[in-house]
UniProtKB/TrEMBL annotation:
<dbReference type="GO" id="GO:0000272">
    <property type="term" value="P:polysaccharide catabolic process"/>
</dbReference>
<feature type="signal peptide">
    <location>
        <begin position="1"/>
        <end position="24"/>
    </location>
</feature>
<protein>
    <recommendedName>
        <fullName>Cohesin domain-containing protein</fullName>
    </recommendedName>
</protein>
<keyword id="KW-0732">Signal</keyword>
<feature type="domain" description="Cohesin">
    <location>
        <begin position="531"/>
        <end position="648"/>
    </location>
</feature>
<dbReference type="Pfam" id="PF00963">
    <property type="entry name" value="Cohesin"/>
</dbReference>
<dbReference type="InterPro" id="IPR008965">
    <property type="entry name" value="CBM2/CBM3_carb-bd_dom_sf"/>
</dbReference>
<dbReference type="GO" id="GO:0030246">
    <property type="term" value="F:carbohydrate binding"/>
</dbReference>
<dbReference type="InterPro" id="IPR002102">
    <property type="entry name" value="Cohesin_dom"/>
</dbReference>
Length: 663
């Protein structure tokens, strides 16, 4: 299938970009959308509410039919109910375009830098708040419980482009919605949350889930708060949407109060992740990242319907790594289930932490739902697929059992290989190339995905990053065995020779920082004072220009000399100041000698206001008229070139003398 652009009307543009993650388009409402087989992410492109986003289910869970086309975040026809707040030095700014609606109506706003656009399969939007640049990046990632790319990653990259530190924080508010159900409980650890609740960092769950009914769940949503590649929030609030919509930061929060929309009489749940303000130094960048999408629950219907969820894999990046297993039980019988018990059965390679293996749920009325949680950990790091069972029993109904698997995998491990020139050649006393490419070849040689991969090049004196290039490059995630080639365009600066070492460094959210060293040899360039004519062929009667140039001087300050020539062949007409002695249109010290002495230009002198390095620059231009045939016979006399300490600089003299012809 090929990419194509179809113009429907002047006001309707449909852009389709096929890629491995799906495709992107502008939908019928003008939203910019990326879509795969599981979910779609769409972003408002209107002047008002620009940058706000929503998520829909497309194909959804492969084995479930009822979730196709259902919303996960309220958003039709154009997203506006969810919004993000950037807090800068105590002031609250809403990300994106201004709104006329309730959500963030009275807040402050920033300046559009980049309207929503597709970059590498992601939707990227940029706004600026003074010197703070905020980039919203929305992309597909794998769910921790389904291992499928059915989850949206919500990333805010905040950069301080100013010259002073700022206190910067963020709040991401998500207007959750499960199909037609806008008030389903948030299921967290062993509780169903139906009223205002806050979790602080010390009790933060790894993830939460929500579904309408266990016996036949149409949509199962999951927010992932902790884990590789994510920035754990300081606090997470579950509350009614109205309260969160009305206030951009601090809002009306009533623990235990049902999710009734503020000022109205409808259930309307939402959540907000808070990252408290922290110091952001000049030039510093910080990411705030969370995931929201579909959740994976293995469900077996029955009189006691049983659903079990857990991470699809446990990455053993530390010896004390733990994972949560959550089980949901619903009594779908018409009678009360008596003395309900639930039991976790683990394989030998997994161990239970402090919880009891068997938990008593007591009596369960018809339609009642209960949930329990166990924390488990692998006994070793040997990669392996492991299956466990959860069984539920009651005195007066049939038993039920679910088997679910998880993989134990080793940590990611990033390797670096550097590709670049090892030596730059010398041509005509100059470098053969003053700009070249260095590539960092980054490979994940580990057994699990590396998240939030960053690469950086560290250059020595004599090399610098080319204009428009970035020293630090964000690479996203790198799967096991995946390789990415990261280019940097590098300029040579100054007159430095020898073996110049440089480093490529790489780090990620779940690997240690690594660096690899390489080097490039720059040749020694000869300091020269040269005379070159503006062309090669002259005849008697022509006017010619002799350019006097300095080359490869590391610390030049002052020069004076006299210049001999054949007065019967040439007549000196005028001396022009060279570019070296013009600084931002300001004329520096330059002495034009008397030209009346035939055959000798005496005591031409010039100096800079401050010493500088000279790669190649013109000191002066001497304009002659050719009087007769013969050789120019140019020759320096009394040459003195000084550095900043008034020491003589030894130079090689290189003079181009020309024989002139008759007309």
């Amino acid at each position: 299938m090929t990419n194509r652009v179809k113009i429907i009307t002047l006001l309707s543009l449909l852009l389709i970009i096929f890629s491995s993650i799906g495709f992107a388009k502008v939908d019928d409402e003008g939203n910019l959308e990326i879509k795969n087989d599981y979910i779609s992410i769409f972003v408002n492109q209107n002047e008002h509410n620009q940058g706000r986003f929503a998520i829909d289910v497309t194909g959804g869970a492969p084995m479930r039919e009822g979730d196709d086309g259902k919303p996960l975040i309220y958003g039709h026809p154009n997203p506006w109910t969810s919004y993000t707040t950037i807090r800068i030095d105590g002031e609250n700014y809403v990300f994106g375009g201004k709104t006329k609606k309730r959500a963030g109506k009275n807040a402050k706003y920033g300046t559009l830098v980049q309207e929503p656009q597709i970059e590498d399969g992601r939707i990227v939007t940029k706004y600026k708040y003074g010197k703070i640049l905020v980039t919203q990046i929305l992309s597909f990632v794998k769910s921790t419980t389904t291992a499928l790319p059915d989850t949206a990653q919500i990333r805010y990259r905040i950069t301080n482009q100013g010259e002073s530190s700022k206190e910067v924080g963020a709040r991401v508010m998500i207007d959750t919605m499960l199909g037609e159900n806008d008030g389903a409980p948030f299921r967290i650890k062993n509780k169903a949350i139906t009223a205002d609740k806050v979790y602080s960092s010390d009790e933060m769950p790894s993830f939460w889930q929500a579904f309408d009914t266990l016996s036949n769940p149409k949509v199962t949503a999951q927010g992932t708060i902790k884990g590789p590649g994510l920035t754990q929030a300081d606090k997470v609030y579950f509350a009614d949407w109205g309260s969160l919509a009305d206030d951009a930061w601090k809002f009306e929060f009533n623990p235990g109060q049902e999710f009734m929309r503020k000022g109205e009489f409808e259930l309307d749940s939402a959540m907000a992740l808070f990252w408290q303000p922290q110091k952001l130094s000049p030039g510093e960048t910080k990411d705030y990242v969370t995931n929201y999408g579909l959740g994976g629950i293995t469900v077996v219907p029955g009189l006691l319907s049983l659903g079990v969820t857990s991470p699809a894999e446990i990455v053993m990046d530390r010896p004390d790594k733990k994972a949560q297993i959550v089980a949901y039980v619903q009594n779908t019988a018409e009678i009360e289930a008596e003395d309900v018990k639930i039991e976790l059965k683990l394989p030998e390679q997994l161990k239970l932490e402090s919880e009891k293996r068997i938990k008593n749920l007591g009596h369960m009325k018809p339609g009642a739902t209960a949930q329990v949680m166990w924390e488990i950990s692998p006994k070793n790091v040997n990669p392996k697929q492991l299956d466990y069972q959860v069984e539920v029993t009651a005195e007066n109904t049939d038993d039920n059992q679910v088997t679910r698997g998880l993989r134990v995998v080793g940590p990611p491990n990033l390797g670096i290989d550097i590709k670049g020139p090892t030596r730059i050649k010398k041509e005509n006393n100059h470098l053969s190339q003053e700009q070249f490419d260095i590539y960092g070849v980054i490979t994940n040689v580990g057994n699990s995905t590396a998240y939030g991969v960053n690469s950086t090049i560290v250059l020595p004196p004599g090399l610098e990053i080319a204009k428009g290039e970035k020293v630090n490059k964000f690479l996203g995630q790198l799967k096991p065995g995946e390789t990415i080639k990261v280019p940097w365009l590098v300029d040579t600066i100054g007159i430095i020779d020898g073996d110049l070492p440089y480093y490529v460094e790489v780090n990620s959210d779940n690997t240690a920082r690594k660096s690899e060293k390489s080097s490039v040899v720059l040749p020694k360039l000869t300091p020269k004072l040269k005379i070159e004519f503006n062309k090669k062929d002259f005849e008697v009667g022509d006017y010619v220009t002799a350019n006097i140039k300095l080359e490869n001087i590391t610390d030049f300050y002052q020069i004076n000399f006299s210049l001999k020539y054949d007065q019967y062949v040439l007549e000196a007409i005028y001396i022009s100041r060279g570019k070296l002695f013009v600084d931002n249109k300001e004329l520096l010290s330059f002495n034009r000698p008397d030209l009346e002495q035939g055959g000798l230009i005496k005591n031409l002198s010039a100096s800079l206001d401050a010493p500088q390095e000279v790669k190649s620059d013109i000191i002066a231009q001497i304009h002659f008229k050719v009087l007769a045939k013969g050789n120019s016979n140019l020759e320096f006399e009394n040459l003195n070139v000084f550095d900043s300490k008034q020491h003589h600089i030894n130079l090689k003299r290189e003079i181009e003398n020309i024989n002139f012809k008759e007309e």
